[in-house]
Design goal:
Elements lengths: L8 E2 L3 E5 L5 H9 L17 H13 L6 E5 L2
Antiparallel strand pairs: 1-2, 2-3
C-alpha cells in the first residue's frame, strides 16, 4: 500500500507538481542549461538519462519510498 499521495503545492514563486513522464522534455532542456550534470556538487542526470531517472523515481513512488515533484516557475 502506497501512503504517499501526490499533491500539488502552490507558492508565490513556484509550484510543485507530481513528477510525470510528460515532464521529460522540459526537464531534459533544463539539464542542458549550464550542463548541470557536469557539476561535481549536483545530482542531475545528463540529458540522455533524464527519462530513465524519471522512470526510476516513479517506480520508487509506486513502492512507497518517494514522492517526486517537478518544480514549475511561477514567474
Amino acid at each position: 500500500m502506497n501512503l504517499l499521495t501526490p499533491v500539488t503545492l502552490v507558492g508565490k514563486h513556484a509550484t510543485l507538481v507530481p513528477l510525470s513522464i510528460k515532464h521529460c522534455e522540459g526537464l531534459t532542456d533544463a539539464t542542458k542549461d549550464g550542463e548541470l550534470w557536469k557539476l561535481w556538487y549536483t545530482g542531475v542526470p545528463g540529458p540522455e538519462k533524464v527519462a530513465a531517472e524519471i522512470e526510476k523515481r516513479l517506480a520508487l513512488h509506486a513502492q512507497g519510498s518517494m514522492l517526486p515533484f517537478t518544480v514549475i516557475d511561477s514567474a
